[in-house]
Amino acid sequence: MKILAIIPARGGSKGVPGKNTKLLGEKPLIAYSIEQAIASQSFTKIIVSTDDEVIAQIGLDYGAEVPFIRPSELANDGASSIAVVQHAVAFLESENEFYDAICLLQPTSPFREKGFISKAIAKFSTANSDALVSVLPVPHEYNPHWVFEADDNGSLQIATGEKEIIKRRQELPQAFFRDGAIYLTKIESIKNGTFYGEKLSYIENNPSLYVNIDTMEDWVQAEQIVPTILSLI
Fold this sequence. Notes:
By secondary structure, the protein is α/β, with parallel strands linked by helices. The protein has helices spanning 29-40, 53-61, 81-94, 116-126, 187-191, 216-229; strands at 3-8, 23-24, 27-28, 45-49, 101-104, 131-137, 148-150, 156-158, 176-186, 200-204. 28% of the residues lie in helices and 21% in strands. The strands form 3 sheets. The chain has a 6-stranded mixed β-sheet, sandwiched between helices. Strands 2-3 form a two-stranded antiparallel sheet.
């Protein structure tokens, strides 16, 4: 299977200014995802999609390819990740480069255990699914069967639509949330505008490595984690 790794990194960031080039530990944030992609030896090509020349140079310095500079309309706050990936796929296909699937590696989820990318791809290759995402378990107190939504009248109803709440924690079905570390998707689904397709499989990540950097509080958390997990990633 020919898999294209895409590491999206725009220059503008309001929550953490300049976060993709900001040093986390001893290297720029974006470097973690590039190095992990290379170490996995799983990809036909590894690219950085960016609108920023400084980020582009860092991508090249750490061993990724930067075949284009992303258009400005795909680098603002309103640009969706799927549009960014579709642009990358279309550009490479215009250069007669074709892939079976893409792997989105978001720099904002920089900590992936050694071998985790390869393990995810192995599961994706045998799962007969359209896509695979990395996940973490939802704590039972936030399970959707125990979560309430407010209706237009100000009353609460169970988020799942059930009339009676599940009373015992042991009876709750497993629930997961996307941790942001890995999205693997077949090209057909990407072209149809979705990372998930119709059949979605998953792989559980290591919760001790979880951080999703969007705010300065997240950045501080990442700085606190990084010295303790360097041997794992």
